[in-house]
Amino acid sequence: MGSETFGVAPLAAGFRSGSDDPVRALDRCLAAAEKGREDKAILWRAASARAEAEAARARFHAGKPRSALDGVPVVVKDCMDVRGLPTTNGTKFLLEPAASDAPLVARLRAAGAVIFAKANMHEFGIQPTGVNPWHGTPVNPWDPGRIPGGSSSGSAVAVASGIAPVALGSDAGGSIRVPAAINGLVGLKPSFGAVPQEGIAGLTLDLDHSGPLAWTVEDATQVFEVIAARAVDRSATLGTVGLLDDFFENGEPEPMQRVRDAVRAVFGEAPSVKTPLCAWATAVEFVIVGTDAQTTCAPHLRDHAREIAPDTRMILRLGAGLPRSDREKADKVRAGMRRELDALLGKYEVLVGPAIGCYAPALNPAARISGELDTAKIARLAAVTFVTNLTGHPCCVVPCVRDGLPMGMQIIGRHGDEDRVLAAARRVESAYGPRKPPRWHG
Question: Per the count of CB atoms within 10 A, which of 88, 105, 182, 269 is most buried?
Fold first, then answer.
């Protein structure tokens, strides 16, 4: 099954016409998960999935589907509570089953979606590489010798390799958008607060967001509408577009040129804009993550130090040594970054630039065993995605190349204006669209 016939829309059409049904769709996903077992994308499978699929099939037979997602199998990142399954948050020791669903998972169930599995992730969601020594590192379906991207690595690989039609990820510094770009998917980080974060093991106190990883912008839109409990205006029109010129500055030349070419092809000669304060995003993100993790993750370091990967331990210990004055400075720069983007978005409806600064880097074999703390690699991957975690603006990544390794364009909009962000993403998608990777399990 190629990517052109995979995802939410073709499933929903098949369910409506009777040519397909939710039980058969679930069986295909489970078969793909079994075929791709050694790719380490999936951690846990939900025993309740078959009953949910059977109930969805009955609703279609009765002509009473609940939503466009009714009967659609969904994978959920393993920092999100799914009743009856562990929420490991990428660790080897958090194995207690959750007593209830996180609110965004409950919203998906209420819409009829079939929660069939939980996906692997970087430990504590603390890095964008997606490497996990405890559960195995998900295999990049475009090139097994490269990282899968993270921290929502399993969610992205599950969709990109044909195991799941759509998945949920979380994002405190690019953890939806980095693996979306690396795996050739659409990844939406909504406005801060648009999606409830309760029942999700957060990395920070106010940088975490949750959203979909999907084949198409429409699939991502439908998931967002359910988990945010609001409709998206698909008739929204797009006017002015600004090009985030300095987002390209520290990236590798070839992928950056390909993004520039895509911007020109889709939006014409968009005016260049500068964001000098956003150049501090990596430093500000490191300080805020380091200090916030003392609340969110440090208790685990105290109780389970030997069961935490060396790279994660190092980040947590470095964060513990940061003085209050560093955090105060970071907060001031963060506020300035927000004002900087707000001012630009007062002039332009969306801002566009690269999703990441490089193609997927090579996977260090030693990292599979002990993790890896490579701050230069982190910055190349996530310097430009850190920005909208710090400012809270909505941001969508969409594929923007037709051949070779995937590369994504990042689209940033005004607070609460997912409508125009998604409208811009649809324009990019109309020119490029999804591509099926060589490694495929569907």
Answer: 182
The number of angstroms, rounded, from the C-alpha of 87 to the middle of its chain's C-alpha atoms is 17
CA distances from 289 to 125, 127, 312, 394, 417 (A): 11, 10, 12, 20, 26
The answer to whether 67 is a known catalytic residue is no
Identified catalytic residue from 3, 118, 151, 153: 151
What backbone phi and psi angles, to 5 degrees, belong to 374? -120, 95
Rounded to whole angstroms, the Cα distance separating 75 from 60 reads 22
Tokens of 88: 């490991």
For residue 40, what are the CA distances in angstroms to 143, 229, 292? 15, 32, 29
- Is 430 a catalytic site residue? no
**Which pLDDT tens digit goes with each residue over 84-113?**
999 999 999 999 999 999 999 999 999 999
Q: How far is CA 47 from CA 68, 98, 162, 344, 379, in A?
A: 23, 14, 21, 49, 40
**Count of all residues that appear for the chain in the document:** 442
Neighbours of 57 (CB within 10 A): 20
Give the model confidence (pLDDT) of 394-436 as tens digits: 999 999 999 999 999 999 999 999 999 999 999 999 999 999 9
Q: Which domains occur in the chain, in start order?
A: 3-431 (3.90.1300.10)
Of the listed 152, 153, 175, 210, which one is catalytic? 175
pTM, entire model? 0.97
148/356 Cα distance (integer angstroms): 13
Asked whether the beta carbons of 140 and 360 are under 8 A apart, the reply is: yes
C-alpha angle 84-85-87 in degrees, rounded to nearest 5? 130
